[in-house]
Structures are given as structure tokens and as C-alpha cells.
């Protein structure tokens, strides 16, 4: 009588483990470092995709690992992926906020599907995750999921971003 329940339990555990592996590591092992997961496309940003960005701001939003927090500035680090749907929804918001607040706050985007080591570095559980630092470099707040422009700006102001 116990044997069918034991087998059913083992089957359920095997299915859950398989699903967890695919959710936690969406990129196949055979993929080259920095490769986009199979079936995903990445549209490169163009000048017409929003406000014009200075080279420094464009680099901070490139998706590449950065030195964070940016010294002397209130900083928001958005950990995500160029191909994640909520991350795609946030991309124009990040560009807009970064352009508007240049010199007063730093907005950084890091693509953890391309740079997997960053997941452990920042202790990420889900993407997108926004990490906010004060100007002294102390982590002060984390948010998981989509975050609106208004909420981002409010948090930056709370952390001491200077006014215009």
C-alpha cells in the first residue's frame, strides 16, 4: 500500500526538480558565455528608442557588469535580462530616468542571462530586481518585479538624490 504513494511522491519530486532546473537556469549549458537563450531575440538599442544618452549613461545601461554603486551618486542597479518581458517593459523607463537624472543619480542595468556570475554577486532570486544605494554606497532598498518611473524617482529622492 505504501509503495504506490512512495512512487508517486518520487515522480512528483522528479518533475519539480526538472522544472526548477529550467526556471533557475534558462540558458542551456552548451550555450557560449554571453549567448542569448535559444528562441530569444535581442533588439539592439538605437538612438530612436528614446532620449539621447551620453556615452557614460549608455555604458551603464549596456547590460555589462559595472562597478556599483556609482561613487558619490544615489544609484539604482536594475538586474534583469534584455529578453525578459518585464525587463523589456522597463528598458525605456530606465533610459528615460537615466537621461533625465544624469549627474544627480546613476541608473545601471546588468543582464544576468548574459553574465550569470552577477546573480550570486547581487544575491538575486528573480528578475527584474532593483537595488537602491545611497550616495555613500550603502544598499538601502530592494524591489523585485516591474517598477514604474514614478516609483523609481520617489525612491531615488528618498535616498537623497539632489534636486534640479
**What is the structural class?**
alpha+beta
Order of helices and strands: HHEHEHEEH
Unreliable stretches: 17-48
User: Distance between termini?
Assistant: 73 Å
Number of strands: 4
Q: β content, as a range?
A: 15-25%
Notable features of this structure?
164 residues; alpha+beta; Glutaredoxin; 4-stranded mixed sheet; 5 helices; 37% helix
What are the SSEs and their pairings?
Elements: H1 2-24, H2 55-60, E1 74-80, H3 85-100, E2 105-111, H4 117-122, E3 129-133, E4 139-144, H5 149-158
Parallel strand pairs: 1-2
Antiparallel strand pairs: 1-3, 3-4
What does this molecule look like?
- The protein has 164 residues and is of the alpha+beta class.
- It starts with a helix and ends in a 6-residue tail after the last helix.
- A 4-stranded mixed beta sheet has the order 2-1-3-4.
- It has a domain of 105 residues: Glutaredoxin, CATH 3.40.30.10.
- The chain contains 5 helices and 4 strands.
- Helices cover 37% and strands 15% of the residues.
Quick overview:
The chain is an alpha+beta fold. It is built from five helices and four strands.
Amino acid at each position: 500500500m505504501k509503495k504506490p504513494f512512495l512512487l508517486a511522491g518520487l515522480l512528483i519530486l522528479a518533475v519539480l526538480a526538472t522544472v526548477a532546473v529550467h526556471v533557475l537556469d534558462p540558458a542551456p549549458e552548451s550555450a557560449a558565455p554571453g549567448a542569448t537563450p535559444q528562441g530569444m531575440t535581442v533588439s539592439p538599442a538605437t538612438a530612436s528608442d528614446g532620449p539621447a544618452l551620453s556615452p557614460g549613461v549608455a555604458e551603464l545601461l549596456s547590460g555589462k557588469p559595472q562597478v556599483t554603486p556609482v561613487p558619490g551618486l544615489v544609484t539604482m542597479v536594475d538586474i534583469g535580462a534584455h529578453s525578459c518581458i518585464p525587463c523589456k517593459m522597463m528598458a525605456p523607463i530606465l533610459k528615460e530616468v537615466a537621461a533625465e537624472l544624469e549627474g544627480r543619480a546613476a541608473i545601471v542595468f546588468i543582464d544576468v542571462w548574459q553574465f550569470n556570475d552577477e546573480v550570486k554577486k547581487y544575491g538575486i532570486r528573480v528578475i527584474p530586481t532593483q537595488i537602491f544605494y545611497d550616495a555613500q554606497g550603502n544598499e538601502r532598498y530592494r524591489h523585485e518585479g516591474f517598477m514604474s518611473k514614478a516609483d523609481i524617482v520617489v525612491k531615488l529622492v528618498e535616498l537623497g538624490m539632489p534636486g534640479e
